[in-house]
Write a structure and sequence with these properties.
Bound molecules: 4-O-methyl-beta-D-glucopyranuronic acid
Helix content: 25-40%
CATH topology of the largest domain: TIM Barrel
Strand order of the largest sheet: 7-8-9-10-11-12-13-14
Number of strands: 16
Number of helices: 22
Structural class: alpha/beta
Strand content: 5-15%
CATH class of the largest domain: Alpha Beta
Number of domains: 3
Length: about 700
Amino acid sequence: MRIFQLLTLLLFFSDVQAEDGYRLWLRYDRISDKKLLATYLQKTASISITGHSTVIQVARKELEIGLKGLVGVKPKFSTQSASANLQIEKVSRLIPAADLLQLGEEGFLIRTPHYSGNPIVITANSDRGLLYGVFHFLRLLQTQQSIAQLNIVSAPKMKLRLLNHWDNLDRTVERGYAGFSIWNWHTLPDYIDQRYIDYARATASIGINGTVLTNVNANATVLTLPYLQKVKALADNFRPYGIKVYLTARFSAPKEIGGLKTADPLDSQVQDWWKKKLNEIYTLIPDFGGLLVKANSEGQPGPQDYKRSHADGANMLAEAIAPHKGIVIWRAFVYSAELPDDRHKQAFTEFVPLDGTFRSNVLVQVKNGAIDFMPREPFHPLFGAMPKTPLMMEFQVTQEYLGQGTHLVYLAPLFKECLDSDTYAKGKGTTVAKIVDGTADQHELNGLAGVANIGNDINWTGHPFGQANWYALGRLAWDHQLSAETIAEEWIRQSFSNDAALVKELSQLMLSSRESMVNYMNPIGLHHIMATGHHYGPGPWVGNLNRPEWNPTYYHRADSVGIGFNRTATGSNALSQYHPQAAAVWKDPVNCPEEYFLWFHHVSWNHKMKSGKTLWEELCYRYNAGVDSVAMMRKNWNKLEKKIDEQRFDQVKQLLALQHREAKWWRDACLLYFQTFSRQPIPAQYEQPAHTLDYYKSLRFPYAPGN
Ligand code: GCW
């Protein structure tokens, strides 16, 4: 072989081996621990798997890929369970019927029954359950768990576990920071990109069972036949992974693509149009999941354009989709330009009176907080306030206000904080999680969704650690009792390595990252003070936008006396929308946890905080603590150089430097601006701003992504 060819070949292989992040948490690298490897080899030496469905084929394929990588042997499959070491079978006779009962439709059981030799049994009531069991089994191996005596019973706590893509048909992604949309609408339906399959594998591996393909700021074109054929192609490829597709419905579609004069939900022609449209969709995609709707919000059309209510709109669609057993997910993210009331209160005011009027196949999807995916937000007062309506959770996985594509921010602590909050709706302990999973009010229909952070970047999420947020969303939708720590550890072990010291270091880095971000962006309950439009970086001075509640000045209310939004009875009284016991936590300025202080109170610059510092000093301290913690993250990351592949090490190193710079930018811009009100110096022990306030105000980012 010529030297040139050899070099090319070498280069090719080194490329293939490179950790570009494409493999996500499904890397399946060889088990390094020799003893474990021997056990795994023995336990998987022969595998029986019964059934022929496409779901079973996918499970087999994943075992093949997984075991080939992890133990280095292509598994031998048979349908004869008696002698196999690993027996994968629906409704296994080795497992008592009562145990199967608790698994429901999608759960699984992995057990080493003491009798009948020593096989491992993976069983479930459905093929989808088996697939989840297989993914879990592979996760056990990847995270190097003992599989000597297994007894795992796992069933999802939520019925609907969805990704919401805010992807447009032109492949731009609203609030997307990882390139363009992974859906290549132009080449669909003929061309099935391998990425679609790998997306389905990763998504199914964490238990997600539905994907809304399109942006909630919807385009009716996706409901036209040529596009529905493209949607069908995706649905056909996702079905074997237990993933249903959903679409966003533009409320004015009957006018825009149906030629009608109105989209009034009480108009019989409009109703017929939707019925026919849904028949068409279900003819192509018999298991189509349903429609997600953003209506009368931020300029989107909706039933209120015809003086009808949100329930009128949702019920009209729900009726049209009901014969197909589909559902309608109606978003509660509404606030109106005309209403002078605190935006915090508007969704509650609008939706609570509608409780009990929605059809049984409607869920109302509520963002975790009442404003908008802020770094820290109290839970949305709607949770617990609409007992007759299933409320679905909407988390943001893409990091619109949370560092976009440049900051390492692990979001599981944010998700958990909300899910574990006590609404007191049915007495102490009625957590948001219990409202959302349906247990508080016995809703069989229930679910959790996350706005996807996925794009066509080689590593899917832009920032390599963005993958952890996609992972965490799925794991928490499956089991919201998992801790942020457990999820981080699982993810690290699969995505980096099982080296105990590395796992510890990376966990610490991830688990502290959300609090750092809160400190350098929005400490002490500040919120919505980012720059206009693209929302990249700070913009607390912005006060000239048409709608009052789009202005940061509306939220922080800084003046010569102090700063913060008074939402108590002497202010907007948003607190009155919470259960009195929940409100009691925040109501009293003396006891209000300081992380929510300026969210609920207007506080004097000289107020003495728990630390003994004045509010102004505390603000300076927090912003600096945020920056310092990013400096610490950089230092700790650099120590890991020998333990992490070169490619990702370097990528994250650069991104952390960027994050450090941006954290300083947030700190300096915000402190300089708030200083114009506090009229006090930034204490000398802190690094002083590098530029003037005018400089920060002059910065422009016309092409910032995601806008
Ligand atoms: O957070 C805001 C975003 C919008 C988004 C909207 C929503 C899809 O800035 O880009 O629109 O929320 O959730 O509807």
